[in-house]
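Please think about what follows:
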Amino acid sequence: MELSKIDDDFLQLVKNSLRVDGTDNDVLLKKIIVTARKNIAGQIETDDFSFYDDNDEFDYAVVLLTNNLYTNRLATSNQERYEVPFALENLILSLKEAWLVKVGEENG
């Protein structure tokens, strides 16, 4: 997986989860998705990006973080701000574990 390449299906998944219509925010959403992917991949500490191919946990973690970053994108706002969802931390821990298991299996 190339972290900076966003396909239309994934963008639509994120837009649906945010209940965003139209294309006005597509460029911003793509930048936030790339930021979320890089953030999560950095926490897992792997340069083997094939680990993220067809990885539903990774995709869901990216959606959660993207939603949080998009919702809290303004420096000042009258809207209530939300912390990063606890589920995201659990997903990242699960992804780290899956990565370590994969490395262990490859190394025998």
Observations:
- The chain has a mean pLDDT of 90.
- The longest helix spans residues 86-106.
